[in-house]
Amino acid sequence: MTELSGLQIFKYLPAAKKAEHTNCKECGCPTCMAFALKLAKHNIDIEKCKYAPENLKEICEQNAKQPQKTVEISGVKIGGENVLYRHEKTFINKTALAVVIDMAAPDWKEKYERVKNFEITRVNEHLKVDLIIVKNGTLPDTITYEELKKLPLKEIIDKEFSSTANELIETRKKAVLEKDENCSNPVYVYFKHTEDKNLLCAKASYYICKYANMLVFEDFDEYLLTALMTLRQNIFTDPQKPLQVESKIYEFNNPDENSLIFMTTNFALTFFAVANELESLPVPSYLIVTPAEGMSVLTAWSAEKFTAKMVAKTLKKFDFANKVKNRKIIIPGLLAHMKDELQEEIKDFEIIVGTVDAFAIGDFVKNLNK
Question: Is the peptide bond before 286 cis (omega within 30 degrees of 0)?
Answer without folding.
Answer: no
